[in-house]
Specification:
single chain, two-stranded antiparallel sheet, 3% strand, elongated
Length: 132
């Protein structure tokens, strides 16, 4: 019986780290996004094609999940420990939620694109590299 071990040329961990930095998952040099959330058609550094990406609502869902799990316990703790007036709570935590969401959303999009690239999803990697 022949054992076949395929070498992972697109490691998931490295791709996720590069995606969280909004860098090309292939080379780590080029910017993945142009503007706030628009994925570039190709990496300016290595030319990797990103037109196959399908992040859709995944980044928004992950952002809401993370912000909710971070802010809800903080809101409860601040309310129980300090009992600030409701308008103070609203002002502080609404600002915090918006700021955290704005910071996380492009990073989650980068991560989703990087995961798709790493796992060859949605047309990423249809052409195998030429190893001449």
């Amino acid at each position: 019986m022949e054992t076949f071990i395929e070498e992972d040329d697109r490691p998931l961990g490295r791709a996720i780290a590069r995606g969280l930095l909004c860098r090309c998952p292939a080379c780590g040099q080029g910017r993945l996004l142009t503007g706030y959330l628009t994925v570039r058609p190709a990496c300016p550094a290595c030319g990797e094609d990103f037109t196959a990406q399908r992040a859709d609502d995944g980044p928004a869902y992950l952002t809401i999940l993370i912000v909710g799990h971070l802010m809800a316990p903080m809101i409860l703790w601040v309310f129980i420990a300090f009992r600030p007036p409701p308008l103070v709570m609203i002002a502080i935590f609404a600002t915090g939620c918006v700021a955290l969401s704005l910071a996380l959303l492009p990073r989650m999009k980068g991560m989703m694109v990087a995961i798709q690239w790493s796992r060859r999803m949605h047309g990423f990697g249809e052409e195998e590299p030429n190893h001449d």
